[in-house]
Backbone:
């Protein structure tokens, strides 16, 4: 029951759903996620903590950079089902189409430069 509550809490926020959709088929640096959502880095970190706690995403650190990806095959079936459900449910959303276009532009930038630019703001 606790896992269900943690997962539903994680999915109850539009920004976290946007992150899950953006992570489909790729890994993103936290600075790329920050740029996509247009939120403060501390807010993005809180969102990512909640998604990680729900086991919806996995993280790895590479030097100073933190990268996130969707939970993989080792994740519980319920988690994989939740990710699939979210993907199906929001795929046609205008917001997700807008995010996909924005993410395409973000992915053309080097994450290191993006992070440096964000730290100067």
Residues:
């Amino acid at each position: 029951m606790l896992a269900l509550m943690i997962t539903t809490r994680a999915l109850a926020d539009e920004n976290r759903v946007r992150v899950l959709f953006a992570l489909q088929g790729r890994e993103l640096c936290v600075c790329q996620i920050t740029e996509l959502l247009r939120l403060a880095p501390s807010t993005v970190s809180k969102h990512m903590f909640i998604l990680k706690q729900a086991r919806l995403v996995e993280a790895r650190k590479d030097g100073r950079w933190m990268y996130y990806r969707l939970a993989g095959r080792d994740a519980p079936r319920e988690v994989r089902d939740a990710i699939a459900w979210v993907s199906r449910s929001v795929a046609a959303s205008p917001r997700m189409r807008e995010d996909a276009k924005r993410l395409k532009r973000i992915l053309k930038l080097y994450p290191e430069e993006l992070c440096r630019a964000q730290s100067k703001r």
In short: The beta strands are 28-29, 57-62, 65-70.
